[in-house]
């Protein structure tokens, strides 16, 4: 495995404690991080050759080191994974985001690997834009790169996702732990579901950092120096031994599908949270690119207080509310009579206002019918006289 390291970049990561980034908006690296840990992260981020993460290594089953290491994943690595699953309580992040099965170029796995290798030295946002342009189908490239911008906020079981396409607001998803409110395509309609009953999905923390789940039996572990190769069933994982970060997850399925996920450019945030600032997951069907998901984090902060109003859905007067709660197949349709600061809390008032307007409308129609009837009778009497 060929590696090239940059001493200057390692010194930069340790002394200045700021990762290389195009617009310098990623948070400072934690001051409490030890020198050895910082060196590990800096060297990990400075690999120039990507082949170690994408190619199956030579079979070394007969080596004593491999036979000794292939019993199970080291407990220290499993402990890192378990800690990482619980270390983030809250997060705010902004990133470039792409997730699509449409308008993709008919690329092979080897072609995508070559693109990744060519872009390996680019900062994450630049790499995102460069790859998005090349993953797109040729007829789509004149329309600009695929993907958009996402602002993701999480606090416990609460989530908020705001999506922007070409700088314009596109949709919003808010789950406050009880209700799920979602809009799409920037229109003035909000769908409301009971938490857990929504048919619409949204990003979770696992969309930005994947933590592996590895069985306790049947795993072959190959020690590769600073990384571990894990092989089980039809899957291969490459793990950084210093941080536990999964650098590669690759697999094949019997139905003609092949996939791999790479996570790169890790940053140590305050609280020793190790998080990749770039990821690319691709799925191939019969050797051709079928689905792609890519992220490039521009700014992030972890485990900081988040105001409660972040998870309130504000809406302007006239917004249509489609209430699916209570197991409704067809929603109750309401309309906000005025600006609303918290739509979930205001729905009873909105519904009451809607009923009032319906009652008023019914009275107006009834009164109009009575007046028409009286006028008709008076006209007939006048004509008869």
How do the helices and strands line up, and which of them pair or pack?
Layout: H1 7-16, H2 35-45, H3 51-54, H4 64-69, H5 75-86, E1 90-100, H6 109-118, H7 124-135, E2 148-155, E3 158-165, E4 168-175, E5 179-183, E6 189-194, E7 220-223, E8 227-232, E9 235-240, E10 246-252, E11 257-269, E12 273-285, E13 288-302, E14 320-323, E15 332-335, H8 343-384
Parallel strand pairs: 6-14
Antiparallel strand pairs: 1-2, 1-13, 2-3, 3-4, 4-5, 5-6, 7-8, 8-9, 9-10, 10-11, 11-12, 12-13, 14-15
Structural summary, described in words:
It contains eight helices and 15 strands. With 385 residues, the chain is an alpha+beta fold. It folds into two domains: 281 residues, no CATH class; 65 residues, no CATH class. The chain has a 15-stranded mixed β-sheet with strand order 7-8-9-10-11-12-13-1-2-3-4-5-6-14-15. Helix 1 crosses helix 2. The protein is elongated, with a radius of gyration of 28 Å. It starts with 6 loop residues before the first helix and ends with a helix.
User: How far is it from the N-terminal to the C-terminal residue, by CA?
Assistant: 111 Å
- Give the domain tally: 2
- How much is the radius of gyration in Å? 28 Å
Q: Percent of residues in helical segments?
A: 25-40%
Strand content: 25-35%
Find the count of extended strands (DSSP E, 2+ residues).
15
Shape: elongated
The sequence of SSEs as H and E is HHHHHEHHEEEEEEEEEEEEEEH
Number of helices: 8
How would you name the oligomeric state of the polypeptide chains in this document?
Answer: single chain
Could you tell me the mean pLDDT?
Answer: 79
Q: What is the spatial order of strands in the main beta sheet?
A: 7-8-9-10-11-12-13-1-2-3-4-5-6-14-15
How does the major sheet shape up? 15 strands, mixed
Structural class of the helix and strand makeup?
alpha+beta
